[in-house]
Amino acid sequence: MRTVLLQSLRRHLRRYVAAAVAVVVAVAFVVAVGVLTTGVRTGITAGAGSQFAGADHVVRDLGTQNAITYAAQHGDDVAVLGSATLPLRAGAEQAPGKFVGNIAAAPRLRWQTLDSGRFPERTGEAVVDVWTAQDMEISVGDEITLGAGSTAADLRVVGIVAASANLGQAAVYVTFEQLLNWRDDETLLLDRAVVVGDTGPLPDGATAVTPEEHAAESMAQHTNNVNVLSLLLLVFAGIALLVSVLVIANTFSILFAQRVRDLALLRCVGATRRQVMGSVRREAAVVGVLASLVGVAVGTGAGYGLVALVDALTRQSPLSAPAQLPGWWLLGGFAVGLVVTAVASWLPTRRVVRISPLAALRPDGAVDVRSGAGRNRVALGALFLAGGVVLLAVAAVRDSTVSMVAGGGTLFAGVLLLGPLVVPRVVRVVGALLGPGGRLATENAVRNPRRTATTTASLLVGVTLTTAVLTGLATTRASVDANHGTAHPLDVALTSWTGPLDAAVLDRVRATPGVGEAIAVDGVLVDLAGAEGAGSGGAGRPLLLLGAPDADQVARDGGAFARVEPGTVALDADVYGEDPAERLGDRTAGTVTASAGGDGEHDVAASPVQLRVTTGTGWGGAGIVAPETLTDLGTPRTYAVWVRASADADPVALLADMDTLADDIGADVDNGLRAEVADHQMLGTITAATLGLLGISVVIALIGIANTLGLSVLERVREHAMLRALGLTRRQLRRMLAAEAVLLSVTATLLGTVLGVGFAWVGYETFVQAALDAATWRVPWVQLAAVLPVGALAGLAAAVLPARRAAAVTPTAALTLD
Amino acid sequence: MSSSRRAPATAADRPAATQPTTGPSTARTAEPTTHGATDQPLAASARGLTKTYGRGEAQVHALRGVDLDVPRGRFTAIMGPSGSGKSTLMHCLAGLDRPSGGTVAVGGTDLGSLGDDALTVFRREHIGFVFQSFNLLPMLTARQNILLPLELAHPRTDDAARERAHELADSLGVADRLDHRPAELSGGQQQRVAIARALITRPSLLFADEPTGNLDSTTSAEVLDHLRRSARELGQTVVMVTHEPDAAAYADDVVTVQDGLIA
After folding, report:
1. Residue A79: CB partners within 8 Å, gap ≥ 6?
2. B82 touches chain A (CB under 8 A)
3. CB neighbours (10 Å) of residue A118?
């Protein structure tokens, strides 16, 4: 049998190429995930310790206020770690939000490394990260502006620091004293301090550890995140593996069907069943080993290549190339390749056993392997289908994730089992659209139902998941948008805390590109009885109360947030916390007592009014009251302009313009746009990443289609030659095969789209409705409509090589007997 | 071996060759330029046909210079042992294979002047084929197989074509099997469907390559009778390649090929 094995391998190895490619891609995926994961871990390890290198202790859980106090008590021996996110302007360049960190006063606590210039020594000086400097064309000696409105600060750049993968890295570093300029900015987060020498007494809740301990703990936390990430990536690798199994199983089925005569002949001349099966199993094993080895090599190369690429392209890459090959990952990838091949070849090789020796003696050499759906298969498929539907219904009703996943899997398995019954019918329906010219292609596509079903199944997996993800994320996005309206009713609010706004401001705002609608809002400045430091602007600042009866013109929630009952004030929980009355007013009753302070010029002092406090979010530091309440308090004047961005506005540009304008008129800017942009960016990134990862399984499926077609073409040499003899031109023959591939891919795409949208709907019922109040079901028709032509084109691409090979057949081949 | 019954299948080979039993070699076609000058116009003719396969030591000369005229409306048999070059000769005559040298003209068209697509279309319109192993498409019914050559030219078949398919099937005795697939037909029935498929385009030339090779003697006789009848009754030019003298006996003229030359 060894001669047979070797010669079979030599003769058929080329036909295994496509199956091997499928294994290679899947194994490479696993290995590349391993290299990347290890790379991230290496990168974090390199960066994690450096912030604490010079310290004796790390104090944690300080909280912003305590951190400031603690630092003030200890002087230069303590450096607080933290950052604020502030708009940065340098010359003509603007950035809406950059991390601003601080530089320790004590040289041994400075972890940043200078690229040029020197470190800042006093307020008014800053150093800039090298990438930011490059982006915004900043050089040493330039002037930059950080922050906006009343807290904007002009700084001189005295140095450029090297970029780092450090977790505490920022775009701009200033002295701690300078950073405290933004002590009331909500983005300022200070939580940790590094200490030289004794820590002294710690504020409540804070703890001190050694730098080593701290680094180890934060490492563990990040490693955890990395593990979650690699698990997520492995899910996609698993999908790719599943698709590979389908492709490989199909390849083996076809190859063995084509070799029925050879194998029967072996049985005729005395090979036992065991020998024949052993021989084909070893053949499969050789393919598995070779493909897995290549996959490991390709994956390692791809992993290291990606690390290098990411490092070259991005500035704050958390990646470094692993110094040592991630051995377990390589071994694991290799093993996965072997297992996949073994699983995929199990059934086809078992079928080899059933070949009767008589098959070799039958006169007809033509291979026409018909295969259909057996009764058991149909029964099992129907059972799975029904079970899946029930489980999904349960999931939708009970919001149960477990039964959703189980139901989805069961339903899909049922669809795969019923494939030989369903897929050919769909192919015929689609084929009918091609007209009579596509008849031959249609007949060819459905002549072997099981093969057709498996081939489409591999693509079905990818398309189902793709459409499910597209629909699911479109729905999530719609729901998040709807929720966003409640959380951030105002796109932009320009608020003056010093005096009424000029009437011309509204016109200037309306003239700004990207502004869809803008209204002037009247208000009264009040003092709160018993409050030390009320408004968002800082201690001792009066609170601005606004009444906006026409808020519905600009608000994303239809103005609901501004409809406040008389005698009530609504305060922004993002600014004042969940219980503003606690902070601002009479601690017990949940009320505040406001009286128009009056500056003697615009507002006249009036008797104090007691107001009940409610909360909402998304409009900034001003309190919202009913218009009647406002007139009770004093004479309302225009203190704010509220803006709704137009649908096609560029949020970043609009914000920058608004910031400039606000600086000009001495107003503050609050906005809901940045949060919205961030949400959209995140969802966009998730969509792109998911589609990219699913793309790998789609590519494998396409390899499968090309493979099935290629092997079918080998079977049909005589037929094609006959058709050529009868007068089919090469071009017609190529078109016929292309049509066959397109039929398969379009069928898979159609079925997959239906399944995917269905799954997304169940997911929506299960997840989104449970998580968000304003859940909205949305089918992204445009994107889904794009999936179909993409599927058709992919099928066309898959047909190129097989069709070329088929068209090379000479008509005389029909006349010679093989 | 039976001799041809009537004269004109003329084989004009190299002077050295002798003509033992192939019937009277007449002087009428010794001169190639007399195309059409004969009382029976030519369906196809070959001049100085050579065909070599492979290179160097492995080179095989399948045809060594063949001149042949096929008269119109007759049933011609090309005979020869296996490896004699008779199939190659037929492939070249039918435009399936290109000769290494010499010319082939079918119905006055020089096949060498046609590109691959033009040649394919020419085959579609002027030449019919019957194969030894029937070569019906397994997934199509008998009727669909018969109509296939028309569909290749025009995807939509009209009623007249269906009518004609039925007539042909009727005359070949397979009218009641038209909705069956090849797997449900006997060998003889399959071959008769194949003949109907070859005749549906009214080709100027019908080639049959060992049409009885896979059939028993009774069905062979039926198939050969059909071929002869289509020549006699419909005036269809038929060229059959065979190595069986019994089959050749049905032909009007017999040409014998040996070692790449007309014997």
Report:
1. A55, A71, A102, A104, A105, A106, A109, A176, A193, A194
2. no
3. 11
Enter the ipTM: 0.74
Pick from A197, A207, A47: nearest CA to A111: A47
Task: Answer yes or no: are the C-beta atoms of A29 and A236 closer than 8 Å.
Answer: yes
Whether residue A383 lies inside any domain: the answer is no
A601 — pLDDT class (breaks 50, 70, 90): low
Side chain identity at residue B222, one-letter code: E
Who among B121, B140, B152 is closest to A443 (CB)? B140
Q: Name the residue among A758, A779, A768 with its Cα closest to residue A389.
A: A758
Identify the domain containing residue A760 by its residue range. Answer: 422-488+672-818
Highest mean pLDDT among A359-368, A771-780, B111-120: B111-120
Report CA-CA distances (Å) from A779 to A404, A465, A578: 20, 14, 36
Q: What is the pLDDT of residue A533?
A: 42
Residue A161: beta bridge partners?
Answer: A114, A129
* CA–CA separation, A791 and A501 (whole Å): 58
- Work out how many CB contacts closer than 8 A connect A with B: 84
- Alpha helices by DSSP H, listed for A210-272, are 211-258, 260-268
CB of A303 closer than 8 Å to CB of A39: yes
Structure-block tokens of residue A374: 């057996």
Count of structural domains, chain A: 4
Find, in chain B, the residue whose alpha carbon is nearest to that of A732. Answer: B152
Nearest by CB to B152, from A444, A726, A816: name it: A726
Closest residue in chain A to residue B206, using alpha carbons only: A726
**Under an 8 A CB cutoff, do A726 and B137 touch?**
no
What are the tokens at B23?
């019937």
Token pair for A535 = 């408004």
The yes-or-no verdict on residue B12 having pLDDT over 90 is: no
3-state secondary structure of A314: coil
Task: List the beta bridge partners of residue A144.
Answer: A155
Contact A258, A710 (CB under 8 A): no
Neighbours of A507 (CB within 10 A): 10
**Structural tokens at position B39:** 């009382």
For chain A, percent of residues with pLDDT exceeding 90: 7
Would you say A474 and A783 are in contact if contact means Cβ atoms under 8 Å apart?
yes
- Regarding pTM above 0.90, the answer is no
With CB atoms and an 8 Å threshold, state whether A817 touches B132: yes
- Domains of chain B (ranges; CATH) run 10-262 (3.40.50.300)
Chain A residue numbers touching B97 (CB-CB < 8 A): 810-812
Decide if A390 is inside a domain: no
Enumerate the β-bridge partners of residue A670: A493
Any idea what DSSP says for residue B3? Answer: P
Q: Which of B89, B110, B56 is nearest to B242 (CA)?
A: B89
- Tokens at residue A214, please? 């701290």
Nearest alpha-carbon partner for A295 in A14, A26, A19: A26
**Amino acid making up residue A563:** R
The residue among A183, A177, A191 whose CA lies nearest residue A86 is A183
Rounded CA separation B241/B86 (Å): 7
Is residue B106 within 8 Å of residue B205, measured between CB atoms?
Answer: yes
Residue in chain A lying closest to B198 (CA): A726
In a domain, A172, yes or no: yes
Residue A45 has a pLDDT of: 66
Under 8 Å CB-to-CB from A65, ≥6 apart: which residues?
none
A636 and A747 belong to one structural domain: no
- Which range among A645-649, A726-730, B257-261 shows the weakest confidence by mean pLDDT? A645-649
Instruction: Flag the least confident range among A123-132, A269-278, A711-720.
Output: A269-278
Whether A90 and A177 map to the same domain: the answer is yes
- Interface with chain B: mutation pick from A812, A816, A817, highest number of B CBs within 10 Å: A812
Give the C-alpha separation, A55 to A51, whole Å: 9
Q: Are residues A203 and A260 in the same domain?
A: no
